[in-house]
Structures are given as structure tokens and as C-alpha cells.
Amino acid sequence: PGFPPSPAPRHNPIMSMARTTSEELIPRDVLFGNPENTSPILSPDGNYLAYLAPSPDGVMNIFVRDLNNQATNGDAKANDRQITDDKKRAIRSLSWAYDNKSIFFMQDKAGDENFHLYVTDALPTESVDENGVPLARDLTPGDNVKASTIITNHRYPDEILIGTNERDPQIFDIYRCNYQTGEKVLDTLNPGDVVGWGAEDDSFTIRSATVKNPMDSSSTVRIRDSIDAEFKDVFHFPYGEEGGLLDFCADGGKTGYLRSTIGRDTSALLKVDLATGETLEEIFSNDQADIGGVTLDKDTKEVRAVTYNYARTERVFMDQDLEADYNFLMTQLPNPNCEIGVSSRSLDETKWIISMLRSDGPTEYMIYDKPNKAVTPLFVSNPKLLPYKFSQMEDVRIPAHDGMELVGYLTRSVTEGPSPMVLLVHGGPWARDYFGFNPSAQWFANRGYATLQVNFRGSTGYGKSFLHKGDKQWGVGDMQHDLTSAVNWAIEQGIADPDNVCIYGGSYGGYACLAGLTFTPELYKCGVDIVGPSNIKTLLDSIPDYWKPIRNDMLLKIGDVDGDEEFNRKISPLFHVDSIKAPLLIGQGANDPRVKQAEADQIAFTMKEKGIPCEYVLYPDEGHGFARPENRIDFNGRVEKFLAEHLGGRAEEFDEVEGATAQFPLLEKAAAAM
Predict the structure, then answer these.
(1) Alpha carbon distance 162, 148 (integer Å)
(2) Where are the beta strands (DSSP E) in 261-384?
(3) Which end of the chain is more exposed for a tag (fewer CB within 10 A), N or C?
């Protein structure tokens, strides 16, 4: 339901060119179904492996493997134990407790993003359900409670620090919890303006607080000498500057590591005096990109490595031993286009889980035995992808309309000549796209569409000026102009067929889709909007309580839609529906706490009233995106049919997916009116 019969896709001569992916249609359930293995993590002692995999019900749950008692019958999973049993919604993250016996995980309800922290037994226990699965314990119970900051410490293996908003829905206090007993006591009270906390390792006490000023959106890092001392303002970042405390040094917390853009454009890693705020040493910076991940020695707190990412991940080593490990691991890669990631290390660092990342295939995980310099295959995240050929992603440089260089990622569908194209816009917008395997890009390429992703102004990782060049540039400004420039570049380069371009995205990417169809209607043949806002004022009026401390920051970045009604109407696609010429497909989760269902309802019903082609699919058990594979595969099947109709690509036959919960508000309203 929801899709009337459509004519067969018209013949497109470019489809006969050499494909970059498999000749056969790669099934949607292979691309978007559950991975068979993911998120592997070692217990601190290195004796056990936990990972996520589908349960017999087809829902991602946690499994544990005893690495000292592995199966020898050819089935590596034969002795693995399932230790959670969620029947409906995938578990998406996990971590070991330092007792080597317990595992933490987060879970919400139907996409409401009120994540609770649970703990369960990783080793055999008598506390099990009727299926023999250990009973998980909710450490943060309560309606509308959200767990946020989770801090563990190997020196205090039985305790954790948890941030929750159970006292006040807008802010997060810190609680100290004995996860063995469930006992939880208030540790540090939020005075009302703290948006982030940090603990010093030796004492395992909250020693830093990041404060957001709701009036001018500046940030301040407060430090205290001990749990009994008062917090003092030490580092101040006016709006437009970026920074924060990364960690304390191993000197009782007298010094620490700070990320800061003050006095420069991209962020630098600094060693600082936490009493005076004085910079003691600039450890690393890069002129093109902000610092990314920082690897510290767990005991000495010395900096071992820093990453940054302009187009691809780059590492700078301060620790020669760690560099030697990476150099050895690079020799184990099958081709130079792969990247190495470290998923987990044992506490003594003798055993690692490493990931081999490539843009044209699934992630492969291996165990690295450091003392013996031996690498053993562990598993492939999604082995169902292995029989298929995928396109190599290219990192490209795109000139914007004013000459600014933009980093983009191109996934071609054919080896030469133009093809229809999907402009895949990232969400956030204060986020970015990365190089790597992207199921959506590979799906589009296999169906006959080049895919272009671009880090437009306002994206993160490229310094403060690039980030804030996106301020007040939504919809009709440079953020959208950058997307237009990217499409024009692809046309000029002979990559994109100018008559067959779709704009597609989720969250901010969904907004960009709506903005593209309303403000540059001549550019796009069709659009797909997933959980995108249509009216920025109503978006901000309905944000979750725990976002309200940063609401003014959002206004400074977006523009004053509170005080300037004309500006809100200018940038909100809802008020420009008459300009839409291309058909639109909307996907929405009914429980989305960020972009409420009303954002999809109001533009879909307005388009329907004006006779503008719009198809609207609502999933009542989803939130900000589609977490359940049944719904994800169902919606993508509808997308594929929509794109084939309007862009002329290939399409796998669409059958309604068992277990999907798709509803069709436009059709339901029309039926009710009859």
C-alpha cells in the first residue's frame, strides 16, 4: 500500500556501460539487514570476547566467546553464549566492566532515545530467564529518564559514574553506582548549566565541568582540586571558538590535555596548567583539519598518537612502540586502500581486536597477538556481502561557488560517462561524511546512480571558520549553495546526468532535501527526505528537554527563528511548497524526539492539498531513523521503486517486508474522507 502501479523504467543507454559493482542486483536485505558479527570487544583480562550478532529472532543481541575454550569443530560460534534477549529492538553498543564478568549496554524504547544503562552477566549465572539468558538489570530506571555520561575506571573495578536526568529532565547529575548491587548515590549535582563532566583517574572523582552560557553560547571549563573543593572557571571559549578538556595528566590532576582553537583556526592538542590555564606545550595541530582521536597511555597518561582527517584518517605517533605495531599491521592489509582501526585492547595490551576497513567491502576483524606479532582472522562483519563486487569510493575536491575547497566522496555507478546521480546529504548538520564502506552509496551505485557526498560549510573537522561559515546559512545560504556547487561540479566533470539528479538525506540531510526542492527546484528530478524538519521554528519549539541548555547555541548557528518570523519563513521549506516541482518521498519515525512527526505531517499534507506529488511513509515503532531492519529494508524498497520511476535505474522487486510497520497517513486521510 501507498504506491500506485508505476510505469516500467524508461530505457537509459548509460545503464549498458561497464558497472563498477556487480552485474546482478545486490539484494536489499543483504545491504541493509543485520550484520552477522559486529562491535567485538575484549574483556579487560583478554580471556573473553563480546560482540553483537542476530539472535534466533533476528534481533541484534550480545554474545560472549571464551577465547580459551573455543570450538574446534569448524563452527567458531558453536560455544558462544547469548547473554541478552531483546525481542524487538537491536542493542547497538556494549562495553565490559572491569570485573571481567559483567557487560554494560544501552537501550531505549521504540526510538524515544531515553536510553537506560543496563548491566548483565557475561559468565554463566543462575539468574536467567526461561531461555537460559542472563537477566539484565536496569541501573537507571524510571520513565523519561536518559542516561548520558558513563565513566569506568580500571582502578575502581566495581564502580561506575553515570550521568542521568532523573532529577531534572533538562540537565544531567552524576551518580556513583556499584553495578554489582545496583546501589546508586548522587555524586555531583548539576547547578543547572553543566553540559559535560570529566573525572580524574587516580581518585575517580569528578574534577571538570563544561558549562554552556545560555545567553551568549560561550563555553567554560571549570576545574576543582578535589571532590570537596569549589569549581573554578579556568578555560573560556567565546562563541565561535571550539575546545574542551580531554583528560587529566597523571600528576594528581595538576595538568591536563586541552583541545582548543583559540589563536588558530583548526584545533590543537595542548598540555595545560589546570590551576592557571597556562599552555605548557602545544603537542600537535594540523593546518587543514581539527585533531581527532587522541590515544593516551592508561597509566602514565602520555600522548601516544593523534589522528586527524581532512579526507582520510591520518595518524601521528609519539610512541615508537605503538607506531611499530601499526606499521606491522599495515603489512597485513590486502591492499593499500584499506585502513586499520583498533576496536579493543586487553588491559595489558598484549591482545588487540583490529578492524580492516575498506570502501568496497565489509569490515573484517582480526585478533592481534602483540608479543608474538601474530594476526588471526576473527570474523567478517557481514559475510553475505563478500560474493558481490562493490565500487571504490573516491575522495574528491570540489570548488564551491566562491572558490572554497570542499571535500567530497564519490561512488561511481559506471566506469565512464555520466549517469543519474544521488546527492547524499549528511545529517547534523554539525557532523561530517567520512571515507569508507557506505551501504547506501553502494546500493545506489548498483542500481545505476552515482552517489556524491560533500562536507559543506557547517560540517565539523575543518576548523572553526569552516564550521561557522555555516552560521545563518541554512536553506537559502552557503550551506545549500555548497550542495548546488557539488551537483554542478559533478555535471561539469561528466559524472552526473543533469536531467536525473535526486537529493536524498536524513535529519539535516532531510531538511536539505526539502530546501533543495523548494529553493533550487530546477536542479533535482526528485527527493527523499528522512526525518527532516520542514519548519525550523516548530522544530526548535519541540526539541527534547535535555537539548534546551544548548537551544541558544542552535539559534546562533541557524539564525533567530524565535525573534524574526520573516527569517524563519525564508529558510523553512514549509512556506515555499508552491515552488516544489519534483516528486518527494518522506520517511518518518513516529517516536522521533528530535524531529517530531509534525514536521513530516505538515509538509506532506500541504503538498497533498496543493496537488504536488508526495508519498509519505510513517513507522510507529521508530524514532530518528529506522533502527529495525524490517523497517529499514521496507522503506528502502519503497525508495528503490521511487528512484527507478523517476531516475530510470534498476530495481529489485518490492514485496512488503514481514514485520515492517509502515503506515501511510496521506492515504489514510484520503480513505477517511471518502
Answers:
(1) 7
(2) 268-273, 279-285, 291-296, 303-309, 313-317, 339-345, 351-357, 364-369, 374-380
(3) C
467: confidence class by pLDDT, cuts 50, 70, 90: very high
Q: Is 534 known to be catalytic?
A: no
> Is residue 374 classed exposed, middle or buried when 0-12, 13-18 and 19+ CB atoms within 10 A define those classes?
exposed
Task: State how far the Cα of 266 lies from the Cα of 87, in Å rounded to an integer.
Answer: 45
Q: Which of 507, 529, 601, 634 is catalytic?
A: 507
The 10s digit of each residue's pLDDT in 270-308 is: 999 999 999 999 999 999 999 999 999 999 999 999 999
Give 639-668 pLDDT, tens digit per residue: 999 999 999 999 999 998 999 999 999 998
Which residues lie closer than 8 Å to 71 by C-beta, 6 or more apart?
Answer: 77, 78, 79
Provide CB contacts within 8 A for 13, sequence distance 6+: none
Place of cell 530546501: 515
Residues 413 and 391 sit within 8 Å (Cβ to Cβ): yes
Alpha-carbon dihedral sign for residues 654, 655, 659, 661: positive
507 catalytic per annotation: yes
Radius of gyration of the chain, Cα coordinates, nearest whole angstrom: 25
- How many helices (H) and strands (E) the chain has is answered by 12, 35
| Cell numbers given for 193 | 548549566
Catalytic residue among 592, 601, 621, 634: 592
What is the pLDDT at residue 4?
33
Three-state SS across 589-615? ECCCCCCCHHHHHHHHHHHHHCCCCEE
d(CA 274, CA 163): 23
The CA distance from 148 to 173, in Å, is: 10
What confidence tens digit (pLDDT) does each residue in 621-635 have?
A: 999 999 999 999 999
Q: What is the mean pLDDT of the chain?
A: 94
Among residues 426, 481, 576, 624, the one annotated as catalytic is: 624
Query: Got the DSSP string for 391-415?
Result: PPEEEEEEE-TTS-EEEEEEE-SBS
pTM summary value:
0.94
User: Which amino acid makes up residue 286?
Assistant: N
- Tell me the three cell numbers of residue 668: 489514510
Short-list 671, 669, 667, CA closest to 1? 667
Using CA atoms, how far residue 664 sits from 434, 587, 603, 618, 668, in Å, is 34, 10, 14, 6, 6
pLDDT digits (tens, 9 = 90+) for 142-198: 999 999 989 999 999 999 999 999 999 999 999 999 999 999 999 999 999 999 999
Q: What is the mean pLDDT of residues 69-75?
A: 78
